[in-house]
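Protein record

Derive tokens from sequence
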Amino acid sequence: MSRTLIFNNMEIQNFVCNMFGENTYIVIDSDTKDCIIIDPGMMTPAEVSAVDNFIEEKKLKVNKILLTHLHIDHAMGVNHLKEKYGVEVYANEKDAILGARIAEQIQLFHLPITLGKVTIDQYLNEKDTITFGGLQLTAISTPGHSPGSLSYYNSDKKIVFTGDALFKQSIGRTDLPGGDYATLINSITEKILTLPESTIICPGHGPTTTVKDEKKFNPYV
């Protein structure tokens, strides 16, 4: 399943992947065809083909991979994309251990797959900028779901990719290794809900929402 958001020079294509219903985002500069892929969670051959075919049909130039965090459901497709498109992975160093322990994550969730370690090539921290084509995202540190969780914000279009920090009327789980409830709530209230109320939230699972709606309706904050 896929969904599309289109702005004047930005297109966001969302593929819903794996048994966790994870959102894989391809963010495209419509003028240059440069793109980045956020949280590639493709698990099955059909999911991999759907992403590859979309890139080929649109004649996109894959610029880099961004990870909000390195839990298995957000990283299943990373190594395929790195090999096929020769791109680097950007994420926070504090989640590197999760990438190194992919086999343990697979075992924890009893997944029918085998994956090599997921390695971060470039570390990102608070306020770092990621540029592709004429577009730019800013990294926001939003730990709590994982130690190194990042959100990615485009101030021009007012869009933020929150990974598993914040969902529509819900929040990410904090019972996995490295999770912390108080830290997550602080990240949400101080880093995400302080963005302009019209900001569109593209979460790691489920439908899009807005900062305004989450301030009003999210029971956790």
Residues 39 and 74 are 5 Å apart (CA to CA).
